[in-house]
Design brief:
Oligomer: single chain
Bound molecules: iron/sulfur cluster
CATH class of the largest domain: Alpha Beta
Largest sheet: 10 strands, mixed
Shape: globular
Structural class: alpha/beta
Radius of gyration: 23 Å
Number of helices: 14
Helix content: 25-40%
Length: 451
């Protein structure tokens, strides 16, 4: 039987914004405006049973009750598959989770027969008419550019015959990108994610070539090729934040000044100690993230674009009332295939037996997928099941939790609390005197659900 922590602390978060006091209800990620006296009463009641709190507020049986039942879903048919086409890399970034794509083994390349079987597995299991995504990962996937082109051609043709819209994604360091690559990435519907850690000095220190030379200049040449004639369908930058990164806002300003659609940060958690963000670093990183979030907020309020994807994603999730019991689709609708055709939960867990999910010959291991979903459901996992942030956080990346546990929970909750405050402010902000940025209809406000 699932026993979900039923104290109010696990289900409610009282918070303040510039506009007043608010209550976040984890179940359904709902936000209520409340009066100060109610905020104080609720704060004093957080250790009581949730049901007792509902009773005392006269809300038992109201829409504040559970919308999520904690049941573990059956693994769905995969809709997204990443192919580790080149388990090797031309760079030597010290923090790389993939050991330069080798994942602790020998360098390897995927051959076309394996890639074609993987694409067939995706099509064969797909529900009629669903959109499918094929990702190219490494190492550096552009080392396998001919394979990528052949797979894009084959999957597009099969998709057209079978009635699936097929899109592609690639994560690249950009340094090897040729004019022909740019043509390929623009000819097919590709989402291109470039790994860039900031201005040249910082980027070169964190992302050197194997020779020791910096890679910033080459990456900029790749970016220029990608944007010269036609842009890919989506072009984003991802910066890895390590304990050596320093202040985050100048990094974000620099990357947002480049021609990307959006820019996101990923914290190095499962990395060697000289790079990994550790318990002593999280408070500083949180302060810096909030500074970046505030800049995003103020730019948006002034009607300007400042596409910081960590902030925008959080705004979108809160706006939709997200309640996700997992951090991502790994092992469920998303899987990853290594160069030899073995299947893993995702691109970071490649070659790790504890995340093995079958292989292309024998088929998917549905029991292993089901075990992964059971084990990691936020209503079952400790300490997530008693955390108010669980349906926004999802319980943390499986790879990081397996390597490092959950050292950043206070950081995650701090960031999400800031995002809740920012959301309330944005949802009432008038943009250039015209409309609210976020329609207030989705925000439950005093008068309709006044607590
Ligand atoms: S990983 Fe931490 S912050 Fe996220 S849901 Fe679990 S306990 Fe909460
Ligand atoms: S387990 Fe971690 S690395 Fe893998 S897809 Fe999920 S969040 Fe990403």
């Amino acid at each position: 039987m699932i026993v979900i922590d039923s104290t109010a602390r696990a289900n409610l978060k009282v918070f303040e914004s510039r506009l007043g006091h608010h209550l976040f209800v984890a179940d359904g990620s709902r936000i209520f405006d409340i009066e100060q006296a109610v905020a104080e009463t609720l704060t004093a009641m957080l250790d009581e049973e949730s049901s007792a709190v509902w009773q005392r507020l006269g809300l038992a049986g109201s829409p504040v009750g559970r919308w999520i039942d904690g049941r573990v879903p059956l693994p769905p048919p995969p809709r997204s598959l990443s192919l580790n086409v080149a388990q090797t890399c031309n760079l030597g970034c010290g923090y790389c989770y993939a050991d330069g794509g080798k994942f602790g083994g020998a360098p390897r390349m995927m051959d076309y027969a394996v890639a074609k079987n993987a694409v067939d597995l995706l099509f064969d299991g797909a529900d009629a008419g669903t959109d499918l995504v094929i990702g190219f990962m490494g190492g550096e996937p552009l080392i396998a550019r001919t394979l990528m082109a052949n797979v894009a051609k084959y999957a597009t043709r099969r998709g057209a015959v079978l009635g699936h819209d097929v899109r592609f994604s690639v994560t690249t360091n950009g340094t090897l990108l040729t004019d022909d690559d740019a043509e390929l990435l623009c000819a097919y519907p590709f989402a291109v994610q470039m790994s860039l850690d900031g201005p040249s000095l910082l980027h070169d220190a964190q992302r050197p070539a194997k020779s020791g030379r910096g890679s910033y200049e080459q990456a900029m040449r790749g970016l220029e090729r990608l944007t010269r004639h036609q842009r890919p369908r989506q072009l984003t930058a991802r910066a890895t934040i390590t304990r050596q990164t320093g202040e985050l806002l100048p990094v974000l300003d620099h990357l947002i000044g480049l021609p990307f659609d959006d820019v996101g940060f990923a914290l190095a958690i499962a990395a060697p100690p000289e790079y990994a963000i550790g318990p002593n670093d999280f408070p500083r990183v949180l302060e810096d993230m909030v500074r970046c979030g505030r800049k995003s907020l103020s730019e948006m309020r002034s009607g300007r674009t400042y596409p910081f994807s960590n902030f925008l994603t959080a705004m979108e999730q809160i706006h939709r009332g997200t309640h996700r019991p997992y951090p991502c689709g790994a092992g469920a609708a998303y899987l990853s295939v290594n160069a030899q055709g073995r299947v893993y939960a995702c691109h970071r867990t490649v070659d790790d037996r504890s995340f093995a999910m079958g292989d292309l010959k024998a088929g998917l291991d549905h029991a292993a997928r089901r075990r992964l979903l059971e084990h990691n459901n936020v209503d079952r996992a400790e300490p997530c099941r008693s955390c108010w942030a669980r349906y926004l956080c999802g319980g943390g990346c499986y790879h990081e939790v397996a390597k490092r546990g959950r050292p950043g929970c206070d950081y995650i909750r701090g960031w999400l609390e800031f995002c809740l405050q920012a959301y309330v402010e944005l949802s009432t902000a008038k943009l250039q005197g015209h409309a609210n940025l976020i329609p207030s209809t989705t925000r439950i406000i005093s008068g309709t659900h006044h607590v």
